[in-house]
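Page 37, top half.
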Amino acid sequence: METQWAAEFPHAALEKRPRKRPRMTWDMPPPLPPPKVPRPLYCGHEYVNGYCISDAFFPYYHSGLPRHLSPPWRPDDKDGHYVFAIGENLTPKYRILSKMGEGTFGQVLECLDLETRESVAIKIVRSILKYREAAMIEIDLFQMDLHFSVCMLQLCANLNWFDYRNHICIVFEKLGPSLYDFLRKNSYRSFHIDLVRDLGRQLLDSVAFMHDMRLIHTDLKPENILLVSSDYVRVPDYKALSLSSKDGTSFKNVPNSSAIKLIDFGSTTFEHHDHNYVVSTRHYRAPEVILGLGWNFPCDLWSVGCILIELCSGEALFQTHENLEHLAMMERVLGPLPSHMIRSAELATRATSRESMRAVGKLPRLQNLIMQHVDHSAGDLIDLLQGLLCYDPSKRLKAREALCHPFFTRDFRRCKFNCCKTWNTDLMLSDPSMVHLNGEQVAESMGNAEKGILQSIGLNSEVPKVLQEIAQLVIMVCLGSAVRATLGIALDDPMALMLV
């Protein structure tokens, strides 16, 4: 009986008892059973369709987690963001290299895939139900049957996803900066009209594809459009030549590649879903959304129009946070709203401040705004924007219709940009042999493009040599650094800089 009592006595109490002899076997409490270790998501287990940790790893999770597998447990911050440290692992497969950005949804981290040794971007969603649900919508869209078609267009490719410590993590290909970040770091200097044309075409291609799938993005904005490459070149900004060049203000950055991809499909919805709630970021919100009239595919095209103006001017067109002021700005730029839309609207009346009146009064008419920033093609661009920014959504241009607009289909531009897309400059840069093998083809393509440019301006091949050289330099600027290097022409050539 005494032995049984000693075995059942709490171990902590035995440590405090004065002992007169060494502890015998019957004094030891029975060993505790090993804890039952579930497969928790916070232990580094990537769940669902991604990399899955072998069962051999699970004993480590309760007997001392190795540092190279997963970081120690930390609570999220007050907003539900994942707390991390640079250099630690995000699951055994990914190592955190840097923080790329942060938004309402969560954070984007640059990580190293320890299996492929490639850098990826991982979107870590806040551990809040509504953001988790939005992330699952985005994942579902990427897992549709036409996912592989998405990769062929200007939509960011989803590589993998997993649930980690109550955070949905989506793995994407690593891309360059957003158009907004590029503008911001470039002191909000506008893009050249030819670059705006190419960016607009790619954006409308993506929107048209989504609309064909009966999907509405609902959150198109420069922050959600990423350049594929981070490379850029510095060229003179002739609008700032009157300023001192000591601080570099007379130069601006130009992307080395115009390729873009669309991201952030967490707000995407299907055509048949309820469309009575407020969507889109304020600056890019369509009038039917503000007026509470319901919305559909045309709300994306309004956002595209606002984006094109921002790329041309360097600034968002409607910088406001209040509905009445927003509508007043629209009327200032585009003219009066249709009476039938106002009659159907549910809009509370509020007093208008002097600051609001001044902000509205500063805005120019659409035609004047474009003429301030665009030297050529202004007429085509104004006509396109009037179609995209039509108040009545039933009369607004559709994505496919916008792609057929003369702003995109002029023979001169089509010749030039088809010439650009003939060559994969990234491949040629990564494989020097490609440059050597395709040299004759590059020269032949340049000859054809040169003839097309000269014909488009009413000239034949029997023109002064200087005009032929100008046509060649136009092609050089468009083809990219790899082809320019192949043919021995640098972008710092004075004539080339004048044409950028």
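Page 37, bottom half:
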Amino acid sequence: LVLRNALSTTIEQRMRDDIYIYNIKMGEDATNLLQLLNDAVTSELYSSLKGQNKKIAFFIYGLDEAVEKKNQQGRSEALLLLNMMREDFQKVQHPLIIWINKASLILILKEAQDFFSWRTTVFEFDMEHEMETSPLIDFGDTDLVFLTREELEDRWDYYNRLLTEYKEKGIDDAYKTGDWNHQLGMINLLLGYAEGSVKFFEESLMKSREIEDRRGEGTDLGNIGSAYSHLGQVEKAIEYYEQALVISKETGDKRGEGYHLGNLGSAYRHLGQVEKAIEYHEQALVISKETGDRRGEGYHLRNLGSAYSDLGDSEKAIEYFNRALTIGNQIQDPKIINYSKKHLKSLTHSKD
């Protein structure tokens, strides 16, 4: 579900000027796709889009749920309808993109072969790849960094469901919806879907400003910076980190100040300005020690090791990585441990 949403969001963002994405939701109470399409093409929205000469593509969601509804013979009602009405789908004048999981695809192959053979192209997206996030960005105080991919996806479903329920019921609670958007953005970022995370962080930022939560505003700005850093837009990331740093100083948020300084250091290192990066990492390290932030201290030591490695100072790099590894072992942080070990091994071999 997380991957699907990330992909569909990216596609919508890239195509919005040329093609209108018309979303259609199936489910156990909406199993007739052809009827849903007929409802769509007779809607006022569709008429308006046609009047503007807009190109349209239908994105179909929820077939995974719809196939669960069985008739008295134990057959999937949705798949029977798909199969029987295959010829009618040829009358649809717009592309249909059906988002389904592998299990549903197998069911279609078995129970709706006629439909499947109708102008069908299948794209598969692998969810088994190793989760990767930038090792040099500090995500601050969040337990999300310790969760598995499956646990992160479960959390994503949970927060997304809460947001959807509040929206459908017309409940406006800026505190809760701001936090849920923040969590969804963090999960997307940790799963590697940075582009999809930006909209959640921007929504969270809007809510923080609405309730005049300056510290939250700083956190949101920093998170938007991290998203742009993941997207390779480092100069833009720096702009957000600097805004976040100003707010953290104004509000006395020392930990936040440390995170933003560290992320600025990582950004400047990415731009090749290593000496400037070291200055920021050293400032961040001082703050993490002052605040007793052991994890932050480990991250900043690790980042200093990387910076000195870039400068070719292996001795200093090894010193910082060893210090980071000690802290990583003490607090049982696998990211600090694995990153430090990997670079210590590389540096040791290069010396040999």
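Margin note: The CA atoms of residues 79 and 107 lie 8 Å apart.
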